Amino acid sequence: MNQTEHSIPPRTDAAAWTLIFLAWLVAAISTLGALFLGEVMHLPACVLCWYQRIFMFPLALILPIGLFPYDAKVVRYALPVAAIGLLVAIFHQLLITGVIPERIKPCTQGVPCTEKVIEWFGFLTIPLLSVAAFSIIIALLVITYFRGSK
Fold first, then answer.
1. What is the C-alpha to C-alpha distance for residues 6 and 89, in angstroms, rounded to an integer?
2. 121: Cβ–Cβ under 8 A, 6 or more apart, which residues?
3. Confidence (pTM)
4. DSSP E strands: which ranges in 1-144?
5. What are phi and psi for residue 124, nearest 5 degrees?
């Protein structure tokens, strides 16, 4: 084989690399945002917020490991972490909106999980931002998986 054929990655790898990079970008922005709100603005985090951080922060480390060099298996490692984080974020959002009764809340000490620490534009809360971030990451990972399996 020609040396040039080995040095140019296939188009599917380049597109998949870009999708994983975008997923990492969302995870990195989410992680930095959570750190900014907690450490700079000194906003308290409830138990469910901590669980969401537990699932978001590793994504900011796992996803770039799959980029250099590109490894399609990163989807297998990152997708379950993001899916569990999304479930926690959805539960938290449903608790804040009152869909889930307050008596089920896991926050028995410290900051209550039903408290809206931030509400931008009248509807944008931290759990809703978390739902959006995990959803975007999962969508990018699923697209990467299906593009790679062709």
1. 43
2. none
3. 0.85
4. none
5. -85, 105
**What are 91-129's pLDDT values in tens digits?**
999 988 888 877 776 777 767 777 777 778 878 889 999
Q: Write the CB contacts of 32 (distance below 8 Å, at least 6 apart in sequence).
A: none
Burial class (CB in 10 A: 0-12, 13-18, 19+), 100: middle
CB atoms closer than 10 angstroms to residue 87: 13
H-only helix segments in 43-73: 47-56, 59-65
Are the beta carbons of 114 and 48 closer than 8 angstroms? Answer: no
Going by the DSSP 8-state scheme, the letter that residue 124 receives in this structure is: B
Residue where the block lists tokens 């699932």? 55
Beta-carbon neighbour count of residue 88 at 10 Å?
24
